[in-house]
Structures are given as C-alpha cells and as structure tokens.
Design brief:
The protein has 425 residues and is of the alpha/beta class. The protein has 14 helices and 12 strands. The chain has helices spanning 3-69, 78-82, 102-121, 141-151, 166-179, 208-221, 235-249, 270-278, 290-302, 317-323, 326-329, 347-359, 367-386, 392-402, and strands at 74-75, 89-95, 130-136, 159-161, 183-184, 201-202, 227-232, 258-262, 283-287, 308-311, 333-336, 414-417. It has a 6-stranded parallel beta sheet, with helices on both faces. Strands 8-7-9-10-11-12 form a 6-stranded mixed beta sheet, sandwiched between helices. Helix 4 (141-151) packs parallel to helix 5. The radius of gyration is 30 Å and the shape is globular. The protein starts with a helix and ends in an 8-residue tail after the last strand.
C-alpha cells in the first residue's frame, strides 16, 4: 500500500472516532437536559423562595412596627391625632422599635401605653385623651434628629416624651431648645444631658454616675481590682466610661486594666473579647445594649475567659437574660433604678402587675416596662396639676413640682444578680 493510501485510511479512522465521540456527546446532552433544566428550575425556585421569604420577613417586621406605632394611645400620623374629637393632649416620642436594640423600645412603651390607656379609658384629663405621636429611630442619632425636626414644627405638641438613649436624645436636644419644648423623662442617665446647661430635659431616673458608683463600690469591696471596661463607642458609652474611671480613681486609687470600644447596634465583638482576655481581668463592666453585651460575654467565654460581669440598667435586663444561655447569664450583676417588678410589697408594683395582668394574663413583668409605666404616672400626675389650663409652660412647672428626682420607689440605685434571686423569672 502506498504512503498516500495509508494516510487516507488513517484520516478516515480519525473522522469516524470524532463522529462517534460527537454522537456520544449529543446523547449525553439529550439524556441530561431534563435534569439540568430541573436543577436550574430548582435553583431558581430556591432563589425565588429565599427572596420572597426575605421580603416577607421585611413586611412582617414593618407590620409589627406599624402595630406598635399605631396603637390605642399612639399614632405615626400626626394628622390623625389632630383630627380626633375631643382634641387630645399630644406628646411626641422618638424611640428604638427596629434593629438590635428594639426590645428596649417595645418593653418601654408597653409600660407607657398600659398606664395611658388606663387613664384614657377613665376619661383622660378633663375629658381629653393623652396621645403620643410616635416614630421609630432604630437607636440612631441621625434618625432621632430627623424625627425631632418633624415634631417641633407642630405647636400643638406639649412635649417630647420618653426618648430612648443618650446619643439619640443628645442629637435631638438642640432642636428642642431652639423650639422651646421639653424632653420629658428620657430613658437615659447620662451626665451630658443633666445640669444647668440642659434646662430643656426633665429627668425622673437616677444618673449613670450613680449606677457607676454602685458597680465600682461593689467590685472593689468584694476584692475585684483587675477591672476591664467594654463601652459603646458613642456619647452613651463614653459618659458611663468617664464616670467609671472617676469612681475607680477616687476613692479607690485604681484604673481599668483595659478599656475597649464597642460598636453601637452590633454583635461584632470578637476582637474586643480578644483584647479584654489578653489583659486577664477578674471583672468586666460592659456598657452597651443587651445584644452587644451578650455577644461580648459569649465571645469571652468561648475564648476561655470568665470574669465577673457587671452592667447597668439601660442594657435591658430581661432581654439580656433571653439573649444568653442560662448558665452564661448566671451571676451577672445589673444596676436598677426602679423597684423590683416582682415585689408585691411595693404598692406601685402591685398596681403595675394588676394593670398588666388585666390586659394580658400571660404578660411578663420586667424592669424596662415598669420604668415606662412609672414615667407615664409622673406625666399624668403633672397634667392633672396643670389642669385646667394645660400648655407647655404650665406642664413644665407641674413636672418640676412633681419631680422628686426619681422613680425608684425610695431606692436610688439597686444591684441585682441574674439567676440568684427568688424574684428572678
């Protein structure tokens, strides 16, 4: 056979092999096509489900917030309140109802609304109901500022009532001053919001300086001297940090072994926990809201560090308990500025429990809702004193007369330890 003939035969063989491989490839495509299409459809359906679930969760949260904003004594639409008959006594409130610290706001207004509804059901003040124009700020200062800028444009408002947090209240205060309207009973004990330069804030709770003193005195008297501080990196955390440093220095002649900033509205505390652990503290004072504090404690525990943990009332005691495993929360010390919500020996607590059980037999008691209930009592008492001519000026005068300084039932600052007391749920 010639070389040319052999070359032709080899070429034919190659072509046949290529043809066979091509046919096999087509068979594979035809066989697998339904599976590929089904798999693609499944992925698309899964993606579509996840997206729809995401949007549904957003809608659920929005609906939940809406139900809180637009309750029996509140509304997010000022025009609905202004159209009410008889004309209500209107206050405005910017507070956290969404985001990581939302339970603080929801528990707080549970107590406020409980008492105000009771008063409104009994005829209000001279036949006029007490209503709140309520907007969510997510515990962010910019949002609180924007809400307040809306509030102050309505002269019908008697006051800004029950703001939550230092950074949000601080951001709103210049607007309140400019408008000549008081911020009444804010849920904050910051020193920066007290004193002669803050004439437009009327407080009914102990200061963070008082709470800092209670914590430091307890720790030092019990032999804890290597004290670390984790503080929210804003006006709230820095205010408490300064008070803690002052209390440690005088009269105890101590200083923190380390002070670590924490991001507001965040669970990202891993690096902060590493820094704290590296200094081997025997006690940690954690200053933030419940989710951030819980995250810091859990990160420390996972890294093998187990200091005595202390925090202050603003953290949110009941919410902190729910965020932590029971064994982890055991023994955490928390300062309190209101009576024990489970102490039936206290007549105010009896009223609170009775009123709460009357509207919800399964309702849980807690410090934050009790504080809301107590400031609502203060407000109503002042309104009754100011009646029949109720305006910003007469209300302010009545609030200052009403202000015995505290809503603590005679005890400025108490200290409770989670899981160790008989009243603990």
């Amino acid at each position: 056979m010639s070389r040319l003939g052999l070359a032709r035969k080899l070429m034919l063989l190659k072509n046949r092999k290529a043809t066979i491989l091509y046919l096999l490839f087509l068979c594979c495509v035809f066989v697998s096509a339904p599976w590929v299409m089904n798999r693609t459809n499944s992925l698309e359906e899964g993606r579509s489900w996840r997206l729809s679930r995401k949007y549904q969760l957003k809608e659920d949260r929005a609906s939940e917030i809406d139900s809180v904003l637009n309750g029996e004594v509140s509304n997010s639409n000022i025009h609905k309140l202004l159209r009410m008959d008889p004309t209500p006594l209107i206050f405005a409130q910017s507070l956290v109802l969404s985001g990581p610290a939302r339970e603080l706001g929801r528990n707080f207004i549970k107590g406020i609304d409980l008492y105000l509804k009771k008063v409104n059901d009994q005829g209000g003040i001279d036949g006029r109901p007490i209503m709140i124009w309520r907007l969510d700020d997510g515990y962010e200062p910019d949002n609180a500022y924007n809400n307040t800028s809306q509030f102050i444009s309505y002269s019908q408002l008697l006051g800004l009532f029950g703001y939550i947090g230092t950074p949000t209240t601080k951001a709103s205060l210049p607007l309140a001053k400019a408008a000549g309207i008081d911020i009444i009973s804010p849920f904050t004990g910051a020193s920066v919001l007290r004193g002669g330069n803050n004439a437009y804030t009327i407080h009914h709770r102990a200061s963070y300086a008082d709470e800092a003193k209670r914590i430091v005195d307890y720790l030092v008297n019990d032999g804890f001297v290597r004290i670390a501080i984790g503080y929210q990196n804003d006006s709230y955390g820095k205010d408490v940090l300064n008070s803690l440093i002052e209390e440690l220095a005088d009269p105890h002649m101590l200083s923190p072994v380390i002070s670590v900033p924490l991001v507001r509205n965040s669970r990202d505390t891993g690096n902060a926990a590493k820094e704290i652990k590296a200094h081997n503290p025997d006690a940690l004072i954690a200053i933030s809201t419940y989710q951030t504090v819980a995250s810091l404690i859990q990160n420390l525990n996972s890294q093998g560090s187990d200091p005595q943990v202390m925090t202050i009332s603003f953290t949110g005691t009941k919410s902190l308990i729910k965020e932590l495993p029971r064994h982890t929360s055991f023994g955490i010390g928390v300062t309190q500025v209101v009576p024990f919500p489970w102490d039936l020996r206290n007549p105010i607590v009896r009223d609170y429990q009775h009123d709460l059980r009357h509207v919800d037999s399964d309702a849980e008691f807690d410090f934050v809702s009790l504080e809301g209930y107590l400031i609502a009592r203060k407000l109503v008492s002042a309104l009754r004193k100011a009646s029949p001519v109720i305006n910003r000026s007469s209300l302010r005068e009545a609030l200052l007369e009403e202000n015995d300084g505290l809503i603590s039932g005679g005890v400025e600052v108490d200290l409770v330890f989670l899981g160790t007391d008989p009243w603990q749920p």
